[in-house]
Amino acid sequence: MSNEYKIVPFYPDDTSEQLLDAYLIFDEKITLELIPEQGLSSKESRKKSLMIKPPTRDTSLWLAITNVKDGLVVVGYSRMSVLNKTSPDYEQNGHIARCSVLVLADYSNRGVGSSLLKATNEKVMEYEQVTDLMFHTFNESGYSFLEKNGAKLVLEQNRSYLNLSKVDLKMMNNWNNLGNELAEKEKIELIEIEGSIPEKIIEEYASLYTEIMSQQPLGSLQLRNVTTPDVLRTRATQMEKTDQHWHTFLTIEYNGQISGMTEFHYSYNQPDMIFQLLTGVKDEYRKRGLGKWLKAKMLFFMAEKYPDAKYIETTNTVTNAAMISINTKMGFYDKEPLKFYELKIR
Hints:
The chain is α+β, with helices and mostly antiparallel strands. The protein has two domains: 6-130, Aminopeptidase; 160-337, Aminopeptidase (3-Layer(aba) Sandwich), CATH 3.40.630.30. It is 37% helix and 30% strand. The protein has ten helices and 13 strands. Strands 1, 2, 3, 4, 5, 6, 7, 8, 9, 10, 11, 12 and 13 form a 13-stranded mixed sheet that branches. Helix 6 packs across helix 9. The protein starts with 5 loop residues before the first strand and ends with a strand.
């Protein structure tokens, strides 16, 4: 890389205001370049998110900086996180370091990304258990950069958006009515939870979450989900710290068993966008329309609870035909695919 740039470690909770502000400006620019639909969350919210340290991960950050007209400018960023032994999925996923490398478009093809990747590689070699790096990206320059550096494509997902002003409300009402009829006939209860999963069901819900995640076709991706009650408790705490409202909908069968779920999160600091997370139904309760009912109930709830929201964002593996079919009927449209790559280092 040219001598006009340098790579520096970045410690958000122990750095100068000048460097922190320069990073936040970079974060705004890269977000608008890559995912303009999301809009920008507030500066304070993004700063708060930076300061949170997940207890089960060791995380390292680097910035590519330069000086422009006597001002400090961040032009690139890289991040590496490794599970530590307190993580419930350390045994299964501890050999994978999750990494990202981002460079502003105006500074691409100048060796910035390669220098950030080099810093990442040097640090990760300190972790003897790590054998593979995992990246995800959703633009052509990202795909090209990772492939040029020897990473292998292991999973592709649709990155989809729904414009809430264009939803077919007649169809949603039909899905909802059919679900209500099924619920009355088979004595199914639908409940909504905001924030923490109640302790009385957290064990069953964690098991359901792991099961539904395992139903998804994940190609040759090595990373596998392990959801425990502690994972859910930590997630709720982190959502609260970053001012995110986490909502979960569950269907409860007549026998008391949780049969299906859907979830999303929303922040008033990013008012245009709702982030749809996992949706799924246990195998033995599928093909009754529960997935459509959950989606319809959730959508009507979103519209009433968060009227300023304009879009829903979600992702699905390209081979997950059932969920893609539901989303397509709802009006979701695809953007550039989200691709996961792995790079073996040992």
